[in-house]
Specification:
The structure is a homodimer. By secondary structure, chain A is α/β, with parallel strands linked by helices. Chain A has two domains: 2-120 and 275-318, NAD(P)-binding Rossmann-like Domain (Rossmann fold), CATH 3.40.50.720; 124-273, Dihydrodipicolinate Reductase, domain 2, CATH 3.30.360. Helix content of chain A is 35%, strand content 26%. Chain A is built from eleven helices and 14 strands. Chain A has helices at 10-21, 72-81, 96-110, 124-135, 151-158, 174-181, 190-193, 208-216, 234-240, 274-294, 316-322; strands at residues 2-6, 26-32, 47-49, 62-65, 86-87, 113-115, 139-145, 148-149, 163-172, 194-202, 226-231, 246-256, 261-271, 299-301. A seven-stranded parallel beta sheet of chain A has the order 3-2-1-4-5-6-14, with helices on both faces. A four-stranded mixed beta sheet of chain A has the order 8-9-10-11. In chain A, helix 1 (10-21) packs across helix 10 (274-294) and helix 2 (72-81) runs parallel beside helix 3 (96-110). The longest helix of chain A is centred in the C-terminal third of the chain and has 21 residues, at 274-294. The radius of gyration of chain A is 22 Å and the shape is globular. Chains A and B meet through helix 1, helix 3, helix 4, strand 13 and helix 10 of A and helix 1, helix 3, helix 4, strand 13 and helix 10 of B. Strand 13 of chain A pairs antiparallel with strand 13 (261-271) of chain B.
Chain lengths: 324, 324
Amino acid sequence: MKIAIYGYGNLGKGVEFAVAQNPDAELVGIFTRRDPNTVHPASKVPVFPASEISNHQDEIDVLVICGGSATDLPEMTPVLAKQFNVIDSFDTHAKIPTHFANVDKAAKEGGHIALISGGWDPGMFSLSRLYASAILPDGKDYTFWGRGVSQGHSDAIRRIPGVLDARQYTVPVPAAIDAVRSGKNPELTTREKHTRECYVVAAEGADLTEIERQIKEMPNYFADYDTTVTFISMEEMKKNHSELPHGGSVIRTGVTGNGSHHHTVEYRLTLDSNPEFTASVLLALARALDRMHRRGVNGCKTIFDIAPADLSPLSPEMLRAKML
Amino acid sequence: MKIAIYGYGNLGKGVEFAVAQNPDAELVGIFTRRDPNTVHPASKVPVFPASEISNHQDEIDVLVICGGSATDLPEMTPVLAKQFNVIDSFDTHAKIPTHFANVDKAAKEGGHIALISGGWDPGMFSLSRLYASAILPDGKDYTFWGRGVSQGHSDAIRRIPGVLDARQYTVPVPAAIDAVRSGKNPELTTREKHTRECYVVAAEGADLTEIERQIKEMPNYFADYDTTVTFISMEEMKKNHSELPHGGSVIRTGVTGNGSHHHTVEYRLTLDSNPEFTASVLLALARALDRMHRRGVNGCKTIFDIAPADLSPLSPEMLRAKML
């Protein structure tokens, strides 16, 4: 399958690496809104201006759209789905139904297939919730995130006057995870589930007390959490906080029989690189989209609609013989 | 959907309970090879002789076949797939391709849909291996089982002269799991992964030393493991070992990018009742089969072929809005 990347940030770079790990995939181009001469891919792949993508319709089986959910994807994905099979990692949970409707309409008009909200959350975490709740209808779901970098929270800190750089880690509370795993079905507040660790580089002479107050009292982002703020140097930021680890657990506990038998289902990810893992999920989903489109399937899909066998490079016979 | 149960042992009882937890499912009958008068279901459902099942074709959407993998299912599932949509939990991994071929032929002849090897292993564990290996092609899989009762190993002990009853627990070695989770990609021998705990009730005057020797030296079952044997009374067996807990972990570790970013994906089950959880998986799969058959799908399937959305009682719109 011929893959192209639309948008070459952390996620786009991850897709480039993922293509290299999958022998049945070939990267045919990177499309960027920047000046193509300023983009230097890790592989020997041509870089084109995003504006010229319509000229490449015959060369691309699946286009991986690597844009932001706030403003990029709601606009890009429907437009591109008219001309290409596309996949994105749209992660604004509340706006998924609207985005799905827009992309579905566009993809059907163009005779293409599209998948929105691929990745791990939404994505593999959503799938874990679906499977576990279908198996254990009488139960309760919990999701814990981290330890990992939240890009949104880091950005929020960077907007505070006097802050030069910031990195925020979301950290699950071990006692809360233990209580859930034990099947106690605890009712947990936001504060009881996660803490927030902030590493901040402040400008010389900045009022550190004021910065810390603004972070800890910030509504939605930090006010509901136990938050720690640690001021560090720019050197320390670059040395110890340049990676984007993440992960977490989806746990469902439930009962069967007459209610006396308890079960715990847990799906856990520990990721050194959030964007590279997300990109790896997208590439497996792209394989499924390519196959489904060749079978005549059009319109917008989600990870819920993809038969697992379509994600694997192995044949159905091999999967049954080796993996079932 | 109208469900019937074929075979009323621990698994069949689990299916009966699972139907009661799912408002969209109705149990229309239990079919047994025993005298129906000796079978006492937990619910008010009619019990029929297995030999009369052909008379009930119009009343059953999906027949859940609850037989043993050694001799029952290879014969039962193909025969029944000619007349019914069927599902089984066939778990002899090496014989899955043959069983699949037989069931596929029969189901297609009858215009029915069938699913083999549903449950958690094979089943949810297989699915976890497939997803994780499709996402992380450059990686390694590990499966740990337990702590849980192995019926096969318990039966093997019971066949030793002088043994009245036995229960065998498969126990994963914590240090091995920790090494895998840490991403060290260890090469583990059979002995390093699991230990086996045996609880045995011996006949009065039996040679306990000889029983212990026969257990520990039994090829395939125990010889390759560190095995402990504890002799207990029949009362203690009934009091402390009457349940069938099980579970385990499927772990895949892999790398992305230039190989320096490590990832760990773990799917873990902790189950108070192996047969009830297996039955709960079968019921979710039965839902999918019923829907797929109404859409015109015939032939044999596995859990790899089932789009996750088909397992859930929720509509695609609800799933996208609430669970993605």
